[in-house]
Write a structure and sequence with these properties.
- The structure is a single chain.
- It contains six helices and four strands.
- The chain is of the alpha+beta class.
- It has one domain (8-28, 52-176): Glutaredoxin (3-Layer(aba) Sandwich).
- The protein has a four-stranded mixed β-sheet, sandwiched between helices.
- Strand 3 and strand 4 form a beta hairpin.
C-alpha cells in the first residue's frame, strides 16, 4: 500500500464538506466565471466552513454510468445499499476528463465494476464550485472514493488508464470491506 499515498488532511476536509452538504441546504448560483477565475482564497489549506457549503445545482450528466448528480443523493443511496461512493470531479472543456470517460470509464469491465460496486456521482466544477474548492481539487479529472463511513479511501488525480484505474478501485473496495481488514 506504500505506492498509494494517504492524504489525511484532504480526507478530513472531504468528510467535513460532504457531511455539511448532506446536512445543510443553501441555494447557490452557477457562475460561469468560476471555470476560468480561481477564488481569492483558493490556496488556503482549511476546509470551507459548513455554513458556506451549499447544495449544488444538478450537474449535466450525459454519461449513463453516473447514477447521481449530487452528493446527498449518493450518500443516501450508499447508506441503503452499503456501497462506497465514487465522486468523479470534472470541468467543462477538459480533454483529459473526456478521455477518461471514453477510454477508461466506458470499458465494459470498468463500467461494470463502477455500476455494481459504487454509488457514482458526476461532479462538475461549474455546477459544484464550492464543493470542488473545498475538496481542494487541483487536477482534472479527479476521482474520490468515499466509504460508507464517510472516510476517504482513495484520491485518483488526473487521467488514469483502465488497468490502473481498475486496480485502484479494487484496492478501494477492499479497504471499504471490513472482512478484508486484518487489524
Amino acid at each position: 500500500m506504500g505506492k498509494y499515498r494517504t492524504r489525511t488532511s484532504f480526507g478530513a476536509a472531504v468528510i467535513a464538506v460532504l457531511l455539511a452538504i448532506h446536512t445543510r441546504a443553501e441555494s447557490t448560483s452557477a457562475d460561469p466565471s468560476v471555470e476560468t477565475q480561481p477564488a481569492p482564497s483558493e490556496t488556503t489549506t482549511e476546509a470551507a466552513p459548513a455554513q458556506s457549503v451549499s447544495t449544488p445545482l444538478p450537474a449535466k450528466n450525459n454519461h449513463r454510468l453516473f447514477q447521481h448528480t449530487a452528493y446527498p443523493d449518493a450518500w443516501t443511496a450508499a447508506q441503503k445499499s452499503n456501497r462506497p461512493i465514487l465522486l468523479y470531479v470534472t470541468m467543462s472543456g477538459c480533454p483529459h476528463c473526456e478521455r477518461m470517460i471514453e477510454e477508461t470509464y466506458h470499458l465494459p469491465n470498468v463500467e461494470q465494476m463502477v455500476s455494481q460496486s459504487f454509488e457514482s456521482v458526476y461532479v462538475s466544477r461549474k455546477t459544484h464550485p464550492r464543493l470542488v474548492k473545498s475538496l481542494k481539487v487541483k487536477w482534472f479529472p479527479t476521482t474520490v472514493l468515499v466509504g460508507t463511513n464517510n472516510k476517504v479511501m482513495d484520491v485518483i488525480e488526473g487521467y488514469v488508464d483502465a488497468k490502473t484505474f481498475q486496480r485502484r478501485l479494487k484496492v478501494g473496495l477492499a479497504s471499504a470491506d471490513s472482512s478484508t481488514q486484518t487489524r
